Amino acid sequence: MKKHSTICLLLMILFTLSSFKDEVINLEGTWLFQMDRNDEGVAEKWFNKKLSDNIDLPGSMAEFLKGDEITLKTKWTGSIYDSSFYFVPRLEKYRQPGNIHIPFWLTPAKHYVGAAWYQKEVNIPADWKGKRIILHLERTHIETRVWVNDKEVGMQNSLVASHDYDLTPYLVTGKQRITIRIDNSIKKINVGPDSHSVTDHTQGNWNGIIGKIDLESGSPVYFDDIQIYPDIKNRKARVKITVNNSTQKNFIGKISIAAKSFNSALSDETQEITSKLQVAKLTNNTIELELPFGKGMLTWDEFDPALYHLQVKLVSNKINTEKTVSFGMREFKIIGNHFLINDNPVFLRGTVHNCEFPLTGYPATTVEAWEKIFKKIKSYGLNHVRFHSWCPPEAAFKAADIVGLYLQPEGPSWPNHGPKIGLGQPIDQFLYDETQRMAKHYGNYASYTMLSAGNEPAGNQVKYLNAFVDFWKAKDNRRVYTGMTVGGSWPVVPNAEYQARGGVRGLDWNKRPETVSDFSAGIAAFKVPFVAHEIGQYCVFPNFEEIKKYTGVYRAKNFEMFQEDLEDHHMGNQSKDFLNASGKLQVLCYKNEIEKILRTPDYAGFQMLGLQDFPGQGTALVGVLDAFFEEKGYVKASEYSRFCNSTVPLAKIAKFVYNNNEVFNAEIILFHSGKTPLKNAVLSWTIKNEKGVTLASGNFDPKTYENGNGIFVGNLKFDLGTIQEASKLNLKVQVNDTAFVNDWDFWVYPDTKFKLIPDIYYTTVLDDKAKEILNKGGKVFLNAAGKVVKGKEVAMHFLPVFWNTSWFKMRPPHVTGMLIQDKSPAFANFPTNYYSDLQWWDIQNRAQVMNLEEFPADFRPLIQPIDTWFMNRRLALVFEAKVGKGKIIVSSADLDPEDSSKIASKQLFYSLQQYMNSNDFNPKQELSFDVIKDIFVSPSKEVFNTYTKDSPDELKPNSAQNRVK
Fold it and tell me: Ranges for the Glycoside hydrolase family 2 immunoglobulin-like beta-sandwich domain (predicted)?
């Protein structure tokens, strides 16, 4: 009998212990649903009625075609600074019902801003009695209110973390009705309509729940928070655990922790550490435990992202609960103006993620989806991601931990276009609340290394952000903190641990391109790490083949409009060529700007805008990848990572165009940001011609290179006297026995003195003599530089369009590269590809272009500047034609044969002249003299009108000052 009683007691204890094992009811699937257009659901107690429609969750309303059709009166969440779309006559057809094409961003299948209700009946098991029951709503947009049956539970509005509701006091055994009201309108807490956390510019202002949705039952004595603080130097971690006791009885038990690695080839685990713990009834208690590691401790960084699982157990005679937390042993800190990971200097090579998810219209919540994105980013030589004015879901941190990337999430705010910080508006406290939620939910992830409060604020920003940085520096040393990520005209926040700002970036290609200068003078004033804000922003022409990818919640109506407009301008068959030609120039620009940063001593990193396209703000096609993170076809990761990587050979070259009576000089330097120094490294170089023939080569002495920018390697010289014909040469530098290699093209032309060919009439005016010569069958070369009227409003620089001309109200430049008929014998003495490369600089930069709007529809010039896709004008820099009985070449570039300072211009003129003097000069297309003359007489019929009075902050005088309207 005694033995039987003992067995019964043990069974009761086991039953009591197991009764608090976490159990989950998955709430994914079909929910009842109803839109609340007039916001009457609360007053009419919709939580007490059966909703009239249904929807599947996780997902958004737009995903299931709930909402309104897109019209010109759709109330978007996002600023529209270019209203010309609503007025331009040629775009009227895109403003008609049934044919609405919004150019500012991608178009969702449906649009809805306001309240919507979601409802589901759930059967609560009898064995959940006495357990704590939590409703998890991962990533909902924006405000939620929850009812159980007829009782309201509460309201939450986080944009960065899951909305978790304790339903324990409300649920009983059996069928229970859970009703959720979600409101995606901008209310009292305004993060800014252009914040990427809410705006239609990027993910869209969706309504729904997109991540995990479930009810979880567990112990009434539970882990409220577990935070792990690595101490690399002393091989230990401080583990801070908060335990809540929601029962009416005091808790007395023990807590234990142990860690074990799980994702690396090497393995390591700690011993279990145990401590007693008491928590009074209806209170909480925080305990700190020290977890020692042995000599086999694994550290986390971009090269070896080793991770541990921390298992935490809580046990008493009635409670047995545990939790597993992922973390990495790493220390990310700052010394002087350098970042260090585990005491190793690290340079941040980053891109900006703007929440581009064109299939769903909302961010991915699976680790697999984020791993795919992050592996793509890393394949392009990058090690860092900034999340512009938003914080990604937990899956992104998990994936970054696995892949090995340093993340800078931000407070979900761009407090500028409406809200302002530091003035006592709700946004002030909300940013503190949100960033604390970020630390609680994601603070243990090794990849979470940096924090910014948001993007480009207005208001009393310096005082507010100084206090914000000080708060976080005192609270959590696991990451480093800046104020907000800003452009160069924003005031400096002195207390920021690092500066993520513009002002020291870009390419000064108003001067001859070179790779000697750096940004040392610009960053000299900063004694903390300087990270370049949004470098690049170099545009490429739209890839219309991308349109078919939009099979989800979004349609690329903007692309469709641009494509049709290009066809209306008689260039539809050139779109792919425009993409590739502009893409090659885009890559060249990114290469040169990144290399300039890498050769600048003490520069700490960059945040590129971007590796991928930005779908909003007028359609900013600034990426070599599209918004799906897929290649466009003109550059591969293996090519891009030659100039963007952990190790990059660099060359200081004073110019890229030479005569053959000169000597080519290059100072070879090295950027290295590796896990270890490059020991006894040998760098070698070769110079080859286009046929692949080696003209010169050499090696530099073995040397050990520590981490740093612009490290001197050696000098090389190459006498160009042996080059007897116009040639493109290539210098390649590599770190022997590694994959690190980089190269640069340069051009050499014979230093010949040539005279004008008498049979060709050279003129700078289309005069009567030119007409007479043409009528008699002669040849005319018209240097029309400075004389163009039809097209003079189009500004062409060597640099392509910045961001896009819509967002910046047609701020120059308007041209994004050139398409060159490189196979034409016209270029027999001027080696070129089909796109503008560095040898074109003195020809192209600031040259006038000609608008061919009156030319025959199929007319194609020899050199065709590519217009902004918002205008799609057919342009020319050089064209040839038959006129009367004669033949003509017209150039709006200043190809002056007397100007010997412009070596490439002189060589192009020579090549065109030799072409005109040959039997190959036989233009296929005919023009009348008057059509050509009209270029120099009549203005363009189609000119841009902004219509809009407002403009982006970047164009407003003194926009970044601490002023209040």
Answer: 221-330
* Both tokens assigned to 53: 């429609």
| Nearest residue to 301 (alpha-carbon basis) of 367, 230, 239 | 230
Instruction: Report d(CA 122, CA 833) in Å as an integer.
Output: 66
The Cα 575–Cα 568 span in angstroms is 13
Q: Tell me the β-bridge partners of 236.
A: 231, 292
Report which of 265, 169, 285, 158 is spatially closest to residue 209, judged by C-alpha positions.
158
Domains of the chain, by residue range, sit at: 23-217, 221-332, 335-543+580-638, 661-749, 760-935
User: What confidence tier does 728 reach under pLDDT thresholds 50, 70, 90?
Assistant: very high
513 secondary structure, DSSP code: P
Structure tokens at 905: 């211009």
Quote the CA–CA distance of 168 and 20 in Å, as a whole number: 14
**Is cis: bond before 169, omega within 30 of 0?**
no
Given a contact cutoff of 8 angstroms between Cβ atoms, the answer to whether 560 and 110 are in contact is: no
Class in CATH terms, 221-332: mainly beta
Residue 731 reports pLDDT greater than 80: yes
CA distance 695 to 18: 78
DSSP labels for 806-820?
Answer: TTTTTPSP-EEEEEE
Residue 402 near residue 307, CB atoms below 8 Å? yes
Return the DSSP state at 712.
E
Spatial distance between the Cα atoms of 332 and 344, rounded to a whole number of angstroms: 9
The class of domain 23-217 in CATH terms is: mainly beta
As a whole number of angstroms, the distance between CA 287 and CA 275 comes to: 9
How far apart CA 243 and CA 277 sit, in angstroms, is 9
Single-letter amino acid code for the residue at 230: P
pTM for this model (two decimals):
0.95
Task: Tell me if 334 sits within 8 A of 480, measured CB to CB.
Answer: yes
pLDDT on residue 17: 40
Three-class DSSP category at 579: helix
Per-residue pLDDT, averaged over 391-403, amounts to 98
Do 221-332 and 661-749 show the same overall fold? yes
User: By the 8 A CB rule, do 536 and 555 touch?
Assistant: no
Of residues 184, 227, 382, the one with CA closest to residue 302: 382
pLDDT reading at 171 higher than 90: yes
The DSSP letter of residue 206 is -
- pLDDT 10s digits, 85-129: 998 999 999 999 999 999 999 999 999 999 999 999 999 999 999
Spatial separation of the C-alpha atoms in residues 160 and 653, rounded to whole Å: 47
Residue 517 CA to residue 708 CA, distance in Å, equals: 17
**For residue 496, pLDDT beyond 90:** yes
Question: Three-state secondary structure along 46-96?
Answer: HHHCCCCEEEEECEECHHHCCCECCCCCCCCCCCCCCHHHHCCHHHHHHHC
Q: Which CATH class is domain 335-543+580-638?
A: alpha beta
pLDDT at 956 over 70: no
| DSSP assignment letter at 37 | T
Taking the C-alpha atoms of residue 87 and residue 670, their distance in angstroms, rounded to an integer, is 53
Whether domain 661-749 has CATH 2.60.40: yes
Q: How far apart are the C-alpha atoms of 905 and 844, rounded to whole Å?
A: 9
Q: Which two tokens stand for residue 664?
A: 């080519």
Distance CA 407, CA 655 (A): 37
pLDDT band at 808 (very low <50, low <70, confident <90, very high): confident
Question: What H or E segment, with its residue span, contains residue 275?
Answer: strand 273-279
Please state whether the peptide bond connecting residue 58 to the residue before it is cis, i.e. omega within 30 degrees of 0.
Answer: yes
- With contact defined as beta carbons under 8 Å apart, do 584 and 510 qualify? no
Kindly indicate the confidence band of residue 897, based on its pLDDT and cuts at 50, 70 and 90: confident
Beta carbons of 942 and 798 less than 8 angstroms apart: no
Q: What is the mean pLDDT of residues 832-853?
A: 98
CA dist list (Å): 928 to 118, 861, 883, 885, 888? 69, 15, 6, 11, 11
Type of residue found at 891 = S
The 3-class secondary structure across 361-428, one letter per residue, is CCCCCCHHHHHHHHHHHHHCCCCEEEECCCCCCHHHHHHHHHHCCEEECECCCCCCCCCCECCCCHHH
